[in-house]
Design a protein that fits this description.
single chain, alpha/beta, five-stranded parallel β-sheet, four-stranded mixed β-sheet, 37% helix
Length: 508
């Protein structure tokens, strides 16, 4: 007898439909799985047989053939255990074909028949809704993320015994249909923890942090050790605008794929990724034998923080150049090509010299000019061009650090950032985007310079040799400063402030 069961597999951040065909026929007892299945899927034969037997279901001693269609798409992972087991039960006559019609199954089986969680259930739920599935059967640990999509009935199968009872209409210990809110919790106050009120002094870096948040700009901090670069960077998520539902869903799909959603329905806060400087280029941009997202994709719609920037390997840093422009990364392998989103804010921190104390009034720099030049040369010009703001974080005297009064809190800064983003969204309409991501034509229309602005730009090019890309970055930052200032037009003062945030361009 032939049975067909619907399932899905994840390709990139989207799910591809898979038809699981199970045929039980006369022949020597065996079980073959075909359809470009990897070792993890083929090993499922052992898990499935033990799970069925320990759940009280005896398969006939026949030849069992399992085909995963389409056959030209590679399948990996243990999520096919449950649909294959259901297909075997249907082909053996235990479950009626009508009971599994318009139902999509995904889950890993334990040897006792329990259903274990798998990765990528959120994009699979999106695919199930798009394909018109009536019902989605998932592991209990994945129920919340599947239910948030809506559009079809979501049931959590605890084990094979209760699932078969449900399919036979006998009830069983299967969780009832899950209903959850389709909107993430868009709190208007930053999460408890790191707050800008804890940062004393540093008015210019704080201002640059606000501008970066308001326009979605990349940011680089330069300063001696202990001056507060990392402290400032870790407070950036607290002043970013809250997630929209579309952003939360897309980012949560990425974390579902890598198994880091933690049983939640949707992520509530923008991601903040801070990999160690020993990370490889593959770890940063993604890839590997089984293609997986890298840190830049895990930071999608959030922040990627690279502390001690010049300690990172040169190939890893240079791999960031294309994603910073394209806002996605295409990973091409011999048998697979995957595109992952990578729309993130890059925040970096570095020391001004090898000893770290160049320009520090409290310590003496011991580096030679040649050593400083060699140290700075590890950061390429094209990568610097792609960072909008370069800001010095100076070492503060004891009097500034010993002040008891608190600085402006993150909530107040966030309110201004949200207002500036609202201005940008209203200006762009249906194509709403931050200033850092405006297309060139749109930027020219909304950030036209006045006579003072043109004079300042001309002088900056003559003195510092700014590239065309750097000039575009300056104009984007000036547009954001004007939005924070409540100005419709970009004035000379906005361009002047934007130019002061190009520290590495003007440092010999």
């Amino acid at each position: 007898m032939l049975a067909r069961v619907r399932s899905a597999t994840v390709v990139g951040i989207e799910a591809a439909p898979i038809d699981v065909e199970v045929d039980v026929a006369l022949g020597l007892p065996c079980c073959n799985i075909v359809g470009l299945a990897d070792a993890g899927v083929r090993e499922g034969r052992v898990r499935i047989r033990s799970a069925l037997e320990n759940s009280g279901f005896k398969l006939p001693p026949r030849k069992i053939t399992v085909n995963l269609a389409p056959a030209d798409l590679k399948k990996d992972g243990a999520g096919f255990d449950l649909p294959i087991a259901v297909g075997m039960l249907c082909a053996a006559g235990v479950v009626e074909p009508e009971a599994i019609a318009d139902t999509l199954f995904v889950g890993e089986l334990a040897l006792d028949g329990a259903v274990r969680p798998v990765r990528g259930v959120l994009p699979i739920a999106v695919s199930a809704r798009a394909r018109g599935a009536r019902r989605l059967i998932v592991p209990p640990a994945n129920e919340a993320e599947a239910a948030v999509v809506g559009g079809c009935e979501v049931r959590a199968a605890r084990d094979l015994t209760s699932l078969v009872a449900l399919l036979k209409g006998e009830g069983g210990d299967v969780a009832p249909e899950r209903t959850t809110s389709t909107e993430p919790a868009n709190e208007t106050t930053p999460a408890a923890g790191a707050d800008l009120s804890e940062v004393h002094g540093q008015e210019v870096p704080r201002r640059a942090l606000e501008i970066a948040a308001a326009g979605g700009h990349n940011l680089l901090f330069v300063g001696p050790p202990g001056s507060g670069k990392t402290m400032l960077a870790r407070r950036l998520p607290g002043i970013l605008p809250p997630f929209t539902f579309e952003e939360a869903l897309e980012t949560s799909m990425i974390y579902s794929i890598v198994g880091q959603l933690g049983g939640a329905a949707l992520l509530r806060e923008r991601p903040f990724r801070a990999p160690h400087h020993t990370v490889t280029a593959v770890g940063l941009v993604g890839g590997g034998p089984i293609v997986r997202p890298g840190e830049i994709t895990l930071a999608h719609n959030g922040v990627l923080f690279l502390d001690e920037l010049l300690e990172f390997a040169r190939p890893a840093l240079e791999a960031l150049r294309q994603p910073l422009e394209d806002r996605h990364v295409a990973i091409v392998r011999a048998r697979r090509s995957v595109t992952y989103p990578a729309d993130f804010m890059l925040v970096t921190a570095l020391n001004p010299c090898p000893c770290g104390h160049l320009g520090n009034p409290l310590r003496t720099c011991t580096c030679s000019l040649a050593g400083i030049a060699a140290y700075r040369a590890r950061l390429s010009g094209p990568l610097v061009d792609r960072i909008d703001l370069h800001v010095e974080v100076a070492a503060l005297p004891y009097q500034a650090l010993a002040r008891d009064e608190s600085a402006e809190p993150s909530a107040a800064v966030r309110a201004r950032v949200v207002a500036a983003r609202a201005v940008q969204n209203a200006r762009e309409g249906a194509a709403a985007t931050s200033n850092a991501r405006l297309p060139a034509a749109a930027l020219r229309a909304v950030a036209a310079l006045d006579a003072d602005g043109h004079r300042l730009m001309e002088a900056a090019v003559a003195r510092f040799g700014l590239s065309a890309r750097a000039l575009t970055r300056v104009r984007r930052v000036a547009r954001t400063i004007a939005d924070l200032d409540g100005s419709v037009a970009v004035r000379g003062r906005h361009v002047a402030e934007a130019l002061q945030y190009r520290l590495l361009d003007r440092t010999p």
